[in-house]
């Protein structure tokens, strides 16, 4: 009885705290602290299984490492698994998972060029196949790998590769969660000009969209291709999304299971870079005729990100110069990007710089935004959340990383029940180490209460 009383005192404290603060402090350090680790990535599935990946210096080279969690990021496997072979540098790791499988992707130097490699896991990150598969062709360098996978383990990998004259976008597909891949890569972008920063998404009906920027002889423009069969085949000619005549910057793509898609990018308007979007209701086959300007003219905006859920709610986030510093801003849509809130919401406070905003959104319309912000002494990771699809946000930002040293490049993943994990590299005074923190969901606190009632 006394044990239960103690628990309910603990539970009452945490539920009162939960209304104000939902994060499981302090952050966990998951990479070994004797060498630098960077490039952190995170993914979580509907069963609260999670995988973290990063690149870590082994004394001679950077290698790709992972750890897994079986409880939504509350604890992690004791030892990291090396995915890439030692002896050459590897970086730009990406990782995806569904409820049964996981696929990791990275670029690694083969002694002459960078090639794209992959490994798969049939137990969501506990173990991995022994020998990495080379996806890109040797002889020229390939960079910037990205990967996506749906619930039936259809996976698509994408990257840019030099063909001797230009960088082109290539892809391969797998129908079995990365165990096997088609033999010959598909060229998605046209030859003759450079293409860069590819991204790819797939939904549960095997609709897929790839997006990238390509030089048209005068400027960089945003292009896409779409697939209706999980990347086996793609439409014949790339579709231009951005208007010609000015350069575009970064581009992103989001797709839900109703085949609603939103593309987002930054484009120069003759004076400044502004955030623009277009939307599609048929999996990328057709797009809205005119782009919507999301950010206000007059100052530069960049680093745009987009998320859409299966209820047609969408949130865009970006960083914008306010005349003194970069701040994180957001807008939301209730109709899959056809229209947007009129006025952007400032998520970060003025007076200090904020960078690298990222957004997540669930089918319950729960959203979490993260970024890094300068405190006047160091860079810290901050967050705000929304329970209505981005219409309103918590008034005060929460500091996730510990003050005193710099933290950079945060990433976040969230599952359907709202379990979220944030990951970042943080300097500890000697080396960069990978840290994570997860939120304390209502379901998690309920499980603690149920455990107490049965013990």
What would you note in describing this structure?
Helix content is 6%, strand content 45%. Helix 1 runs antiparallel to helix 2 (442-453). The longest helix is centred in the N-terminal third of the chain and has 17 residues, at 2-18. It has two helices and 32 strands. Mean pLDDT is 95; it is low at 5-21. With 455 residues, the chain is mainly β. The protein has helices at residues 2-18, 442-453; strands at residues 28-29, 37-44, 50-57, 62-69, 81-82, 90-97, 102-109, 114-121, 133-134, 142-149, 155-162, 167-174, 186-187, 195-202, 208-215, 220-227, 239-240, 248-255, 261-268, 273-280, 292-293, 301-308, 314-321, 326-333, 345-346, 354-361, 367-374, 379-386, 398-399, 411-414, 420-427, 432-438. A hairpin with a 5-residue loop joins strand 18 and strand 19.
Spell out the key features of this protein:
455 residues; mainly beta; four-stranded antiparallel beta sheet; 2 helices; 45% strand
Structural class given helices, strands, pairing? mainly beta
Shape category: globular
Helix content: under 10%
Give Rg in angstroms. 22 Å
**What percentage of the residues does DSSP assign to strands (E)?**
35-45%
Distance between the termini: 10 Å
Count of β-strands: 32
Total DSSP helices: 2
Q: Largest sheet, order of strands side by side?
A: 1-32-31-30
Please tell me the overall pLDDT. Answer: 95
Give a quick summary of the entry.
With 455 residues, the chain is mainly beta.
């Amino acid at each position: 009885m006394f044990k239960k009383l103690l628990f309910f005192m603990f539970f009452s404290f945490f539920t009162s705290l939960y209304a104000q603060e939902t994060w499981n402090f302090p952050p966990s350090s998951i990479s070994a602290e004797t060498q630098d680790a960077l490039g952190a990535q995170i993914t979580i599935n509907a069963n609260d299984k999670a995988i973290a990946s990063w690149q870590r210096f082994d004394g001679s080279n950077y290698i790709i490492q992972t750890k897994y969690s079986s409880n939504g990021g509350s604890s992690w496997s004791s030892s990291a698994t090396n995915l890439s072979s030692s002896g050459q540098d590897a970086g730009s790791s990406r990782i995806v998972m569904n409820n049964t499988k996981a696929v990791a992707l990275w670029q690694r130097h083969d002694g002459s060029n960078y090639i794209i490699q992959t490994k798969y896991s049939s137990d969501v990150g506990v173990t991995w196949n022994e020998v990495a598969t080379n996806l890109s062709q040797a002889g020229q360098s390939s960079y910037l790998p990205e990967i996506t996978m749906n619930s039936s383990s259809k996976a698509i990998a994408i990257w840019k590769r030099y063909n001797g004259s230009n960088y082109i976008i290539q892809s391969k597909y797998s129908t079995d969660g990365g165990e096997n891949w088609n033999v010959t890569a598909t060229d998605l972008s046209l030859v003759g000009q450079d293409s860069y920063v590819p991204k790819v998404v797939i939904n549960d009906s095997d609709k897929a969209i790839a997006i990238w920027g390509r030089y048209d002889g005068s400027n960089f423009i945003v292009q896409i291709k779409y697939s209706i069969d999980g990347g086996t085949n793609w439409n014949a000619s790339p579709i231009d999304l951005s208007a010609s005549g000015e350069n575009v910057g970064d581009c992103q793509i989001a797709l839900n299971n109703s085949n609603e898609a939103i593309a987002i990018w930054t484009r120069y308007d003759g004076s400044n870079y502004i955030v623009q979007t277009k939307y599609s209701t048929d999996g990328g086959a057709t797009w809205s005729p005119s782009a919507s300007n999301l950010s206000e003219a007059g100052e530069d905006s960049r680093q745009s990100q987009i998320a859409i859920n299966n209820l047609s709610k969408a949130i865009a986030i970006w960083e914008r110069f306010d005349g003194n510093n970069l701040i994180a801003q957001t807008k939301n849509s209730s109709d899959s990007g056809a229209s947007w809130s009129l006025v952007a919401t400032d998520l970060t406070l003025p007076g200090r710089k904020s960078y690298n905003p990222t957004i997540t959104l669930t089918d319950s319309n729960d959203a979490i935004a993260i970024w890094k912000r300068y405190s006047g002494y160091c860079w810290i990771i901050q967050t705000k959340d929304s329970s209505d699809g981005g219409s309103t946000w918590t008034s005060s930002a929460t500091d996730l990383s510990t003050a005193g040293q710099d933290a950079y490049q945060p990433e976040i993943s969230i599952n359907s029940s709202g379990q979220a994990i944030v990951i970042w590299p943080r300097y500890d005074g000697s080396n960069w180490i990978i840290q994570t923190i997860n939120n304390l969901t209502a379901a998690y606190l309920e499980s603690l209460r149920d455990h107490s009632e049965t013990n």
